[in-house]
Amino acid sequence: MDILDEFDISIIKELEKDGRMAFSAIAANLKISNTMVHQRINRMTEQGIISGIKPIIQEKKIGYDWASFTGITLNKDSDSDRIIEALKNIPEITECYFVTGSFTLYIKIIATNHEHMRRILYEKIDSIPGIAKTDSIIELGCAFKRNITL
Predict the structure, then answer these.
(1) Total-model pTM
(2) Smaller CB count within 10 Å for the chain: N or C?
(3) CA proximity to 107, closest of 122, 127, 87
(4) Which of 141, 113, 111, 140 has the alpha carbon at shortest distance from 125?
(5) Cα–Cα distance, 99 to 106 (Å, whole number)
């Protein structure tokens, strides 16, 4: 059996329109039972396919006009767990990925202006023991952002 069937996909598409949509409204839109919607959402949540219902914050609308994608080179890759924990304590870092190539980690940073970005990079990130180097690319705007198409 596939992980997701047509009902699961339809339910997810309804939730993508509005994550706060009542199960009864999803059921009515899809012409299935409320119980089925509830069971499917619970199963997908338990399996880790979907998680949480969160607002999508438009950072630029609240004054975070700068963003960067920053590659991080570590002195020792074995320090990555400790360094990731330190990065989690910097609220302006919104994403962190393990990557291949020249870097060990790749992060997204948001900041209010270029001075704020400089302080995050030089005072917060560079002070974490074990980070050898950072290399940042400034984001000029998001062309699009989406979930995987089901």
Answers:
(1) 0.81
(2) N
(3) 87
(4) 111
(5) 7
Give buried/exposed letters for 65-104 (b at 16+ CB in 10 A, else e): ebbbebbbebeeeebbeebbebbeeeebbeebeeeeeebb
**The two structure tokens encoding residue 25:** 């409204």
User: What's the Rg (C-alpha) of the chain?
Assistant: 20
Say if CB 63 and CB 112 are below 8 A apart. Answer: yes
- Look at residue 10 in the predicted model and tell me its pLDDT: 96
- pLDDT tens-digit profile of 24-36? 999 999 999 999 9
Residue 69 · residue 103 · CB < 8 Å: no
| 71, 115 contact by CB (below 8 A) | no
98 CB-side CA count, 13 A: 7
Angle at 12 (CA atoms; ends 9, 16), nearest 5 degrees: 135
